[in-house]
Amino acid sequence: MLVRSEKTNSNKYSELNEYVVKIKDQISCSAAATFIIHHDTIVSENYFGSYVSNSKIQPVKPSTRFNVASVRKSYIGFTISLALYQNKLSRMDDYISDYLDDLNLDAVKGVKIRHLLTHTHGLKNDHEKLFQPGTGWKYNNVGTNMLIRLIRKIFDAPLSEVMKQYVFKPCNFKETSWCKNKEENLVWLNEEYAGEQGAETNLFVSAHELALWGYFHLNRGFINGRQLVPKEVLEQAATNQSPASLDDALPRNGFYWWVQDKPRAISEMGNTLPSGSYQILGKTGCACLVIPEHRLVAVRMYNQLGSNLSGYDYLEDIKAFGDKVLACTLS
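^ thats the sequence. predicted structure below, dont judge the formating
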């Protein structure tokens, strides 16, 4: 059972929080948060800045929900892993063309579900290839959109409903959902969304529940004395599934999670993080890092709008975040 520490805001993670605030200011964010779980205990929880909602300035607080952008891919990965466990899909190495109609067969020739999950599909868009499947790595949403379609077909339900059934309701998540309308506790990014079924990047989560999502994986689905989903579903999603022949410098992924096997040049995992660590990231600057070796989950939240900011190196930043999390924990 997860226990809240009486010394949640001790100085142990002060260096990490100072770093998060420094980056917040550098990338022109108004809001940020950090949340750390260590050995089943909440050991640090901090909220910084404010955001505008309904023309009012709102302070960031525990109930504040950030748009986590591509963190949603870990929910897609979970659902595909569940589908494999339930035999709704036969194999990770099935071709996507075996399941979806109306695909450009020339473009998706050789593209497997494994490739879609690990950013190794090689597709530039629905009609063009950048490289042959499994021979390179490129981050984009082409494969993600195909998997969202696949989920709706094999579960006969949208992603949001599958997640409600298997995770949100069993875990009593009240601060995790896809939202298309502005609310006071939502850190909105001046975007518009058509639906709330999981097909768009409008997943809003509190720092607390994003940490619990990481903790759900850390505990392999065993929460509060109950095995909420088969442990194999989480184990599969959070271990390296990238093609074995991938170039040594390129990142390794589980079911969208970035996975550490060893430090790699282009990986977004901190160089000091032990093998078996994994994390999921979003363009708003948010991150959920899981370090099983130390029974540790660390979350940071931002409301970043821009990119390619002068003097800011995202790869350097996200690696430093992970390294600082570990250093503070071991200090």
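The longest helix spans residues 314-330.
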